[in-house]
Every structure is written in structure tokens, then in C-alpha cells.
Predict the structure of histidine kinase.
Amino acid sequence: MTPWRAPSLEDLIGIEHSKLGFFQELRQTIEALKDANAQSSQRRREIAAILDGITDIMMVLAPDLRILSVNHVFRQTFPQPAPEGQFCYKIFRNQDTPCPECPASKSFATGDICRETAIFKIGGKNIQYEMVASPIRHPDDPESHILVFKRDVTREKEYQAKFYQAEKMATIGMLATGVAHEVNNPLTAIFGFAEGLRRRLPALREKVDPGVMEDVEDYVSTILLECRRCQDIVTTLLTFSRHKTVSFSPVSLNAVVEDTLKLLRSHLKQRNQAKITVRVDLCESLPKVLGDEHQIKQVMLNLLVNAMDAIAGPGRIVITTFQSVPESVCLSVEDSGYGIRAEHMDKLFEPFFTTKRAGKGIGIGLSTCMSIVQKHHGDITVKSQPGQGAVFTVKFPVNPDKTS
């Protein structure tokens, strides 16, 4: 055994130097940790600033579509006390099953970035969102999550639809003006000569065989009647296509229905070869609404054409006007067509969405209808089952103080 000896001065100095080195290394480590923490805090602040600058709704979803976290825009749009832990479809749709167009479900199933567009009713208004779902994977977490962005594209889609609609109506207006002039010139001559024949009929009555005279009077009356009908059709066509400043005045929904049916009379006759019956049930005491007659006729025209297109063979169309409550009147178009599938119900009024085959439409008719009706402070509701037809009901307020 080595005998104990007292540490020398050199030993004590060496121990102090080693302690000093340890504490210096410890201090350097602490300083490095402080710098790293400061950089991490700065990075977190930068990321938070970036996230706060995003104006889209953001949320992170679990595989069962429960919300794990949301950004400030989500909380502003949906002032839920605690959205975390709730199902997204419960908040967005107030339903108990996932949405059929859900991009998050598709992203979970495929592992890819998925995009979808859908309309949600928020605060009593139809808002169209473009949704992007992107998988989030972490090496330490075997369970994947989905980051969902929802961007409001309502105004953008409305502007696109208005542009196409304005372009289409401008073209129709130019054609209608040309057709009106070309038709009115010979029509005026036919009407004038027929009127001249009618004035000369009394002088011929005693000189012509009574049977022949009766036929001539009938022919002249028919010519005059059909001339007046042609004039009404041309006038109605011009009211549909003429671009004018929107001005609200009392409008009769019954007159709108009758004028639209006049315009589509020939089309209805062609479709009647397939045995399509049109029944009109108009409320005689229906109060007038304050609105733009041209635009309301455009709504009626779109709904009626869609109803005819939805019927492939024999069927029926029922047009009804009624007063549901004292404050509003309704216009309903019901068809016995193929109906609307459940996954398409939320997209009906989305601009450029259509189930018609190519060449039959570009999908701005119903979106234009919704825009016009909302401008009149009204609403459009749809009831349909696949294979059982559809009912479109347009509601307009009667109180002029609520319409501007």
C-alpha cells in the first residue's frame, strides 16, 4: 500500500487548473445552448409570423378527420370555443358523416396532395372554397396527419362567371338586334298587306261564295294573329338579350313565366315529340316583387331549359308561383328528369360545374341564377333524389325596403 502523503503545491495548482478548464468548457457549452435557444426562438417567431400572414383557413387533421390544430383565420371564420378534437365535417357541414368531396380523405387514402372545390354555407352565405390537402409525415411518428388549406375563391369564380355571361349575352344581343331588323321588315309588310285585305273583305262578301269567303276571313285572321305573335317573340327575345342599366321596379312573376314560355314555345313543341307535358299553376293574387325584370326572366329561362335538358324521354314539367309567407313569393320549376346525385348537390351553383355533355353547356347558368337572386335578396333551394326529378324553388322578398 502506498503511504499517504500531503499534496504538494504543484498538485494543488494542477487541480485548480483542471477545475478552471472544466468550468470554462461548461460556460462555453451554456453560452452555446443560449445561442441555440435564441436562434430557435427567433426561428419560431419567424414561422409564427409567416403563419399569421397566411389568409387561408389552415387545420391539421388526424386520420379520423378530427381537428388537431387550427390557425387564427379558422378561429375568425368559425368562432368555436375549442375546435380541436371535433370532426371537421361537423363544423363545416353540421353533419355526422364525412363530406363526399373531402380531399383529406382522398389524401389519407392515396398519400398524395389532393385538391377539391366545394361550396359551404357559412353565416347564411354560400362560400366557395378551393381546398388543398397535403400529408404530413414525421419519422418519429408512425401516424400521418393531413394539413388542409381552404382558400375563399367565391369572388374570383363569380367574376369569371360574370365575364363569360356578359360575353355570351353581348353576342346574343348583337344577333338578336340583327334578327329583329331582318324579321321586322318583311313582317311589317306581311302585316300591312293582311290588314289591307281584312279592310276589303266586306266589299267582297256579297260577290264571293260564302264558303270561300269564310275560308278567306279565317286565313286573314290567322295571318294577322301569327304576325302579332312573331312581333311578341322578337320583342321578348330583345328584352332577354338587350344590355341595359339594372333598375328595380315592380315585376310580376306570372308575366315572367308567360313571357319565357312564349320564347321557348318552338323548343317545347320539339320536345313534345318525346311526350313532355308542361303544366302551369300560377297564383292569381300573387303580389309583385321589386326587381329587374330582365334578370328575373334570365333566371326563369335557365331553370326551364335545365328542366327540359334533364328529361331524356317522356316526362313532365310543372311551373308554379305561390306565396309561402306574407314577406315572400316563390317561383318553382319541377321536372321528372334523372335527378341530382348527392355528391353534386353542393356544386350545383359553382361556376363552370356541369354534368351536361360537351357542347350542352359550360356550367354558368345556375351560378348566374344564384348571383341574380342574391342581388334581389332572395334564395334558391333544391330538392332532388336520383331518378326522381328535381324541384328548384326561387324565393323573392316582397318588402321593397329590404331590396336595393
Remarks:
- DSSP finds ten helices and twelve strands in the chain.
- The first strand starts at residue 57 and ends at 61.
- The two ends are 109 Å apart (CA to CA).
